[in-house]
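Replying to the earlier thread about multi-chain prediction with a worked example.

Input:
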Amino acid sequence: MSVVNLDSLDLSVCDRGGSMKSVLDFPKQFDEAMNRAFVFDLPMMRFGSVLIIGMGGSAVGGDILKALLKRRSSLFVEVLRGYELPAWVGEDTLIIGISYSGDTEETLHSCEEGLKRSSKALLLSSGGKLEEMALSKGIPHFKLPSGFQPRAALAYLSVPLLVFMERLGIASFQRELEETLSILGEMVEELSPEVPSPSNPAKDLALWLYGSVPVIYGDEGIGGVAAYRWKTQINENSKQPAYACLFPELDHNEIVGWTTDRFKGVFKVIALRHSSENRRTSLRYSVTRDLISDKVGGWREVEGRGKGETSLLYSLIYFGDFVSLYLAYLNGVDPTPVNIISKLKDEIKRQK
Amino acid sequence: MSVVNLDSLDLSVCDRGGSMKSVLDFPKQFDEAMNRAFVFDLPMMRFGSVLIIGMGGSAVGGDILKALLKRRSSLFVEVLRGYELPAWVGEDTLIIGISYSGDTEETLHSCEEGLKRSSKALLLSSGGKLEEMALSKGIPHFKLPSGFQPRAALAYLSVPLLVFMERLGIASFQRELEETLSILGEMVEELSPEVPSPSNPAKDLALWLYGSVPVIYGDEGIGGVAAYRWKTQINENSKQPAYACLFPELDHNEIVGWTTDRFKGVFKVIALRHSSENRRTSLRYSVTRDLISDKVGGWREVEGRGKGETSLLYSLIYFGDFVSLYLAYLNGVDPTPVNIISKLKDEIKRQK
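Result:
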């Protein structure tokens, strides 16, 4: 049992960095990001492939775009999290470089390389060297509002990509974005700190997870994108390990790891479900649960909300953002600071 | 401490399924796979993208091909592990469908869909419905030798893809394949069961890992492909959980999970290194190790061997195959049978 009571939180003590405020504001940020993206001065461009370059919280927008274009567009989309541009990137590729700070080393390096191969580009940052790069090369730059942690700026880092694709005639998102906005608004009412734990499913799940290592299962589509986001949010906000795996692939290997119940005291499974799953994958979830649920510390499911894939995806992500904060409070850590990353960046920068 | 002594193994008892024999034969299989692929009746084809369809052990060949083409070819390559073909797959896409048994549900489904969109295809299986599909549609079929577990047939499931790319004029692999073969031969001498544990680094690593959950770190290139293979081999052979994460992305989230040492008794890190890493990524390995090694149960490194990327990659994979078997013996499990997958497949098949 944690000594923290989730129903009598003093956020000015347990959340000095204001992560909960930022998560509660997400629907507002989502709306603002949409509006700003629709009026952004976007040049018409034609391209056959898209490379999104970003790291951590700044790369999730790329995952979201890729997953939501998978069924809608014949564009080849890849997300690059690193230093090494694939050889296929060329003149016909739209380069989308995203770094919240604008100073992420890997992103700057790969954007620099990418811009040697293609003149079609869009850069997103709150400032930094990425903005300078855009200005000096005459590349459209979408300026993100400052004052966020990168992972808390998800609306600004992802929604504009969908709007830009809509405006470039690649795929239609507007109706789904509007549905999403309304569902996110409902979720705030249900998951915010004032709602006590028995009727607040995010608190309830955090209490259940406390003390364990969550393993999050999603599907090959949007569920997998949400599962990876949950993993990273639990790492960064709750400051503890967590892992993610995808259906149907996990039925071919991961599942055999649960032949033993030796680690039953360590791991708990959260399955992220949604109505857009492949029918056979839905069946796999239930068969897998029956086979492993007595070998892990438990199995719980979270269901995406809404009709469109956009809403299903963002609602799964948003639920996880709340869970990661409640779990942080239970763990007795302030969700906002990520000191170990700051130390790492300083050390990396020192060693040129 | 395990009750098993790795230096006095009776393989006829602890390895009834013959997994070690199959791993010891890997260099021979590699050679045979090369030779068979060079004489295979391969039609000349032109294409702009490649989609490799496969699951589990049958998909690793796709990962290997994608990683090794990344710097060498402007082809767009993607590996599909699932039921859902991306919308970009079309007439200009080469479909490579791989299923060791030839009866993997997801692979059959996605190949069926893929062949509606493109007539350029290659199918690999030891028989089953995938072979029938090839015969009935007049598609080239590379027949894999039977009698293996899919994960143990890696040479046949991966080497031909490299040879085919060479023969189609996409990229050159022959010299690297020859280097790889010679290095794999050296590794057998060093890692086989007759070599006692103090001088056998695979036994040594398995003894160190015993009782813990391995987290395997690789890089965005070939190291990441090997890390995922290690994860799945430990799942399937050693019958226990294991996870994989990639540099540099893990420095943006995973690393924060090691702010706490609460799970120090559970996890141990293995970093897969190689001489083809990005220079900045190499630095990240050492800085990350310094920051987290007292928060996890320990950090050990395994180094890829040889000069070419092909040899670096296969040598990392091969080392992990040995480790996963020794860990299985320590865990007191026969590496070969994967009963839980058989149960799952039966149940899935029953529910049409």
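The longest helix of chain B spans residues 309-331.

Feel free to reuse this layout for your own posts.
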